[in-house]
Design brief:
Layout lengths: L2 E5 L1 H8 L8 H10 L4 E4 L10 H11 L6 E6 L3 H10 L3 E4 L19 H13 L3 E6 L6 H7 L3 E5 L1 H6 L5 H17 L3 E5 L7 H4 L7 E4 L1 H10 L1 H12 L2
Length: about 240
């Protein structure tokens, strides 16, 4: 069974477009939880173009009322971001190497080049009782150092898999993810996945054993617009084995 974590950034982006509070992020989260979502993910950015600092605090308080639902905050571990995370105390913090001007996350960590930073941040998260996850490309060579740094999990950045889905190259690309997941699991690390996963490609990806969590936002929100939330969440839960 794989946990479905719903990323609500796009709901906040839509709200911010009009300067009001519709759609309300907490209302959407509540609706997702009622339909069976087991996690909520946010990726606050410095310009607050979607999820804001105030949102993070409100979501943290709301999810505390739902002890079976996990809260995952992802982002670049700047000092400001870490202050936000340590105050919110989510179940998990996914560390992502993006910069403020990026439209969306587009690569995993060069772990060796950022070893000192990641070691310090992971230590802070561990001390606070927050599970750590590193956003990684499907490159098994990073795994020994990730383990050494003390991370709890990795999140496989799945854009490349999604881009090759349905093409002749799909099997080759899928295998790189499977190999990376296997290396991580052999090292005692949990494996999550996210980015450009959707109702069409998720089932094939989850042929990789023991993926603990998938974080899905953009595609899920778009699919809800066409199919309705009941149908979309139900279909994701069926795919993830819930």
């Amino acid at each position: 069974m794989t946990q479905l974590s719903v990323n609500v950034n796009k709901i906040a982006l839509l709200r911010n477009a009009r300067g009001h509070d519709e759609p309300n992020v907490i209302d959407f989260i509540s609706a997702a939880i009622r339909r069976g979502a087991e996690g909520i993910t946010v990726h606050p950015r410095p310009d607050e173009r979607h999820i804001t600092r105030t949102d993070v605090a409100k979501i943290s308080d709301f999810i505390a009322l739902h002890p079976k639902v996990e809260f995952n905050i992802e982002g670049n571990p700047t000092a400001e971001f870490m202050d936000l995370v340590l105050a919110a105390k989510p179940d998990q913090c996914t560390l992502v190497p993006d910069v403020p001007e990026q439209l969306t996350s587009d690569h995993g960590w060069d772990v060796a080049a950022n070893e000192a930073l990641l070691k310090d941040v992971i230590k802070q998260l561990s001390k606070a009782g927050i599970r750590s996850s590193l956003f990684l490309d499907p490159e098994p060579q990073h795994i020994p150092l990730v383990k050494k740094l003390g991370a709890d999990r990795i999140e496989l950045y799945t854009e490349s898999y999604a881009a090759h889905f349905g093409l002749e190259s799909e099997d080759t690309i899928w295998q790189t993810y499977a190999d990376t997941a296997a290396a991580a699991q052999a090292a005692g690390l949990g494996v999550n996945a996210g980015h450009d996963l959707n109702l069409q490609n998720l089932g094939r990806f989850l042929e990789i054993p023991d993926i603990l969590e998938v974080s899905i936002g953009h595609a899920l929100v778009v699919e809800c617009l066409y199919q309705g939330m009941d149908a979309v969440i139900s279909r994701y839960l069926a795919i993830t084995g819930n």
